[in-house]
Amino acid sequence: MKKQVIEYAGVPVGIVIPDEDRLKFIAVKFHVHHLDEQRFGSPDEVRLAIHDLMTRRHPKPLHA
Q1: Taking a C-beta distance cutoff of 8 angstroms, is the pair 34, 49 a contact?
Q2: In which element (H, E) is residue 17 found?
Q3: Residue 3 clears pLDDT 80, i.e. is over it
Q4: Would you say residue 64 has pLDDT above 60?
Q5: Residues 6+ apart with CB under 8 A from 4
Q6: Which three-class secondary structure state does DSSP give residue 30?
Q7: Torsion angle, CA of 41/28/55/42, rounded to 10 degrees?
Q8: Which of the four, 27, 38, 47, 62, has the lowest number of CB atoms within 10 Å?
Q9: Which residues have a Cβ under 8 Å from the Cβ of 9 and sit 6 or more positions away?
Q10: Is 9 left (phi over 0), alpha (psi -120 to 50) or beta?
Q11: What gap in Å lies between CA 25 and CA 55, rounded to an integer?
């Protein structure tokens, strides 16, 4: 596997690169910097971590 761009809500937020038997996430947007250099098993695992991070930071309002 080569490097792969990771998007969130249609915006590129980082890349994953092979690192031993895992994928290392390199953040290119500040709002996902908390995940920078963490290792994951798949690109989908990275996207899930980004989703979890973003929903914790920006929870949906109780009243719309």
Answers
A1: no
A2: strand 11-19
A3: yes
A4: no
A5: 15, 16, 43
A6: helix
A7: -10
A8: 62
A9: none
A10: left
A11: 19
In angstroms, how far is CA 61 from the centroid of its own chain? 23
Token pair in block for residue 51: 């989703």
* Cα–Cα distance measured from residue 57 to residue 20, given in angstroms and rounded to the nearest whole number: 31
Q: What is the pLDDT of residues 7-62, one digit of tens each?
A: 999 999 999 999 989 999 999 999 999 999 999 999 999 999 999 999 886 666 65
In what helix (H) or strand (E) does residue 44 lie, and over which residues does it extend? helix 43-57
Of residues 31 and 1, the one with the higher pLDDT is: 31
Q: Which amino acid belongs to residue 50?
A: I
